[in-house]
Structure formats: structure tokens, C-alpha cells
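Colleagues,

Please find the record for the two-part complex below.
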Amino acid sequence: MTMSKSAVQVSVIVYVGARRTSLEALYPEYKSGLAGLGVPYELIFVLDGPQPGYEQSLARLVADGEPITVISLTRYFGEATAIMVGFEYAGGSVILTLPAYLQVEGSEISALYSTLATADVVVSYREPRATRWFESLRRAAFHGLLRFVTRLQFRDLGCNARAMRRKVLEEIHLYGDQQRFLPVLAERQGFRVAEIAVRQSKGDRHDHTYPPRNYLRGFLDIFTVFFLVRFTKRPLRFFGMIGVATFTVGILELLYLVIARIWFSSPLADRPALLLASLLIVLGVQIFALGLLGELIIFTHGGGSKDYQVDRVIHYPDAAPASVKSPSAANPVIVA
Amino acid sequence: MYPFPKLSVIVPFYNEEDSIEPMYAAIVRAVTPLQISFEMVFVDDGSRDSTVLRGEEIARRDARVRIVKFRRNYGQTAAMAAGIQCASGEILVTMDGDLQNDPADIEQFLEKIAEGYDMVVGWRHQRQDKLISRKIPSMIANRLISRVTGVRITDNGCSLKAFRRSLIRSIPLYSEMHRFIPAMASIAGPRIAELKVRHHARQFGKSKYGLARVYKVLLDLMVIKTVTSFTARPLVWFTLLCLPLTLIGLVTLVGGLLAAIPAGGRLSLPLTGSGVIFLSAAIILMASGTLGELIYKLGDVRPDDFARLTMRLVASHESRE
């Protein structure tokens, strides 16, 4: 590295996963974009699983004196984990994440960076977007569902070009595939999130279809985020709701059966519906108990985690406390 | 005059730009004659109006004022918790920022604390709120809370409270639990006093509560009951939950088996099946109870910490002074 750590202002974390373009095409694009910022920067490439070829070409760039750090993980850990690992090596006060393939044009990096003046996290959406109708339908469904669940509107969480202040990653611990939902979690922590339009790179315009597995995973991810965002601090609100609903259905069915037995003397003992009613009641109680266990975990282990984020404390220790007229304002008791 | 050096008045504000200045003036007017050093911690709960700006003006001219600004709105409990964390006084007084509580009441609260109480809770005996949407639900909730938790408080919803710092700092405050502070504090067995306080009708802004809280209050009550029972007798709470299940299960199972005798040994599947389901559920609940016990044991909440908090050395053969 040519630049000393302390001088670096912008750290770029590049996640190198399965999808990647050759460094010969990628690096000049990013380099020219970053040079446009006019501040010292570094790039941190995190290889998610061994990729010897890519590692070698990165090593050549390092040998050429480029400000690059390369980290290689022994196996696939997922994008969020890789980014958190890369963050440990980041020295800048601003963190950019960029994909290892041409997704947006390098010249848009400066737009991401400058929007940080009024926000803590800047996410981007590709506009105009070359895509197939089925893909845009899928995307609309995903973001619509996310909006329904979190009440936050984003247009393109699949776009990995993002900028954020250092403190965002210091506070939010990502894991698994959560990096896609970083803006949701950041908003939740009280950070200001901005979304800007960026030009899509020509290299990104290709047809790819996702296997059904990905759809299921996307749906589960939304569910996870839903739980994380809404209920981690109050599990009983979540489990209680499901538990009470199940229990109520079971009790109603049981009541119906009992009434039918007493007034219409239809035999209770031989009706399979009785089994269903008892199952529902029991299930409801157990789900509720799970919620109670969750609350117990929060109560006994949640001591260190706070429910809130303080932006700042305003205090002027030198101010004189005598401006309000009061009986003993002449000799007020002054607090240090 | 008072046996403690410093008082902190904690007031959460949420979109109360018209109230913050009068509130400040009222506190200063009420506390200054008491001859006690004090500070004010104003917590801005992510207001979108100019509450923070006006608060900052006040802080600029009075060093006794601290403004804790939240990044966004987190709710009253979080605001109280942040204020309590930030306060440096030995005695903490919390009150609402909407001018419905009267700082003139602080004096009698301090006297109660000086008498040796650990916590003093206000009671709005002439409450100036709407009857149907506010007073009646609140009355039912208070009855329910004191019945379930065993802490006899007439008015849990009143924000005007006074505590010793050591006590309130050790009580976990989370979710929307500020109305359960006395109940939660009962883990530590504090000496609690209740005082009638003045209550004014709202002058500015509008009320931030609604009827939809019933479900939340009920669930929070369950939580409180669970966590406070666990400190006293672990496992008992889950065992109580599975008693009715065991009972139903046994009755159904035995009934099903007995019914098989006149039927010539032909078992009724739904009946015996239900019995087995209920019994197995009871066993799983019991198992959850032991799991809970494990969680509790590995956690960082220790009942003896709470006991030490409020204990008094009544007599000892060696003098400790």
C-alpha cells in the first residue's frame, strides 16, 4: 500500500463472490470513479471462498502500488459476513461497498459519496434499467412485500453500490444475507437513509434467471427482517399473537362440539374434530410459552443492549443558570 | 436540608415545542426554593417540530439543563430509560412533558423519599382526561395490574414518580414498560409510597395514546408476571401453566379408557387421542420451564442483587460505621 492508513478517508469494500468480472475491466472503472472523489481512498477486496486466479491478479495490482488490501476467506460465508470482515480492515470514515462485477458505472461513485452530506446511508437504484418484464415483476413483488412488512419504500435493494458513514457499520452487525437489508436495519437504528438513481453499467445488462430456491430464500429473508425489525425486543408480541389466535380457534371449535353434544346430542367422543380442537388449543399454549421464553431471554440477557439510539447530548456546562426569575435567583445552587 | 446531595428531574418530550419552555420555568420555580442542587434532563424522543431547538436555547443559558436527543422516535419508555442513564442525581424524578403533571408536587415527593421510601408514585386523583377513552380503560388496567403483580398502586400510568437512582438503574426498562415500573421494581421489594398529585388538562399538543393499547398492556403484564415470578420461584410459573393441561388431559384420557369398558374394549380414538395430546403438551411446557430455568441461570439477573439494593441493616453486633 502506498498510502498510510491514517490518511485514508474512503474505504471501498468489494465483495468477490460467485459473480465477478475480470479485474482488467473492473479496476480501471472503479479507479477512475474513485479518483474523481479527490480524497485518499483504499480498496478492500474480500474473496468469499478461495479464488486463486482472482487472488493472483489482485496481488499483481498490489505489487504495482495500488491501495488494495486482499482478504481471502477459507469457505463461503455470505456477503454480509464478508463485508463485516472487510470492515475490520477499513480505515476510512466513509465506507463504500461495490460489487465485484460491473453493476453501475464508475462515474456514479462520486454521486454516492456526495449524497452522504445529508444522509448516513446512501443506497442506489439503477435507472434507466435494462431488464426483462418477468424480472421487473419479481422485483416489484419483492419490494412491495418488503414495503408492506417494514413500511419502508426502496426501489432496488439488489444494487450493491452503497455509501455509508463508518458508525453505521459499527452499530449494525450484519450476518448471512442481510446486507441486502442494510438500509432497512439502518433506518431502524435511526440513521438517515437516502436513495439515489445511478446509471446501470453496460456489463450488468444480461439475462439471468433465478432458480425457485432464490425466491423462497428472498421470502424467508423478508420474514427474518420483519421479525428482527419489529419483534426482537418483544417476542411475546409476535408469538403471543399467533398463540392467542390458534388457541382461540381451538377453543371456539371445542365449544361448538360441546354445544352440539349437549343440545343436539351428537356424540362428542367419536368426532375427529375433537382431535383438531385439542391440537389447536395445545399448539396455541405452546407458541405462547415460546414467546414467554423469548421474553425471559431478553430480560436476563438483554441488559447490555439498549432500546434506543441517542443522537447527541446537548449540554453547556458554562451557561449561567440565572436567567429565570425565581425567589433565590440571587444565590442559586449551581451544579457543576 | 435533604439527606441527599442532588436531584435530577427527567422529562421526555415528543413534539412538545409549546410545552418545553413553560415546563422548564415551572420546574425551576418549584425546585429552586427547596435549596437542593438539581439538574434537568430533557429527552427529545425524535420530535419533528422545534422541540430540540427550543430545548437547546434553554440549555445554552442554563447549565443545569441537558438535552438528550434521540435519532428517531423510540417511545416514552426508552426516553425515560435514556434520561435515567444520563442523570447524575441521587434522586430521580420523572414527569410528563405535556404540562399535565405539576412540578410543584416535587417537594412532597422529596419529603417522602427523605422519610425512607425508595420509590414514590403519583396518583392523579382528579384526572383531567376523557372518561370513556382514557379514564375507564386506565382504571381497569390499574386494577388488573395490581391484582396480577400484587403491587397495590392506584395509578400506574402517572409519569410523576421519584426513585433512588440505585434502584431505578437496576430495573430493566424495555418495550413499553414505563407503566410497569412499580411492578417491575417489585423484584427488588422497594418501599413504595403513593401520593396524590395535581393533574392539569392538556394545554398544547394532542394526546399520544389510544385505545389500541389494551392488547399490548395485557401481554406486557404476562411478561412482567413471568420475569418477576422467575426471580422468586423459578419453574413455578410454567408449572402453573401446565396444571390445567394436565388436568384436562388426565380427565379425557381416563374418560376415554373407562368408556372403552362397556364398549367391549373398543377405544374411542378422538377422546383418548385428545387426552394424550393434552398430557404431552403439559410435559413439553414443563420442559420449557426447565429451559427457562437454564436461561435464567445463565443470564445476568441475580435476585440477591435486588435484595441487596433495598435492604437495611437493622442491627449488628459489630459496628460498621
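The domain at 7-132+151-204 of chain A is CATH 3.90.550.10 (Spore Coat Polysaccharide Biosynthesis Protein SpsA; Chain A).

Comments are welcome before we finalize the supplementary table.
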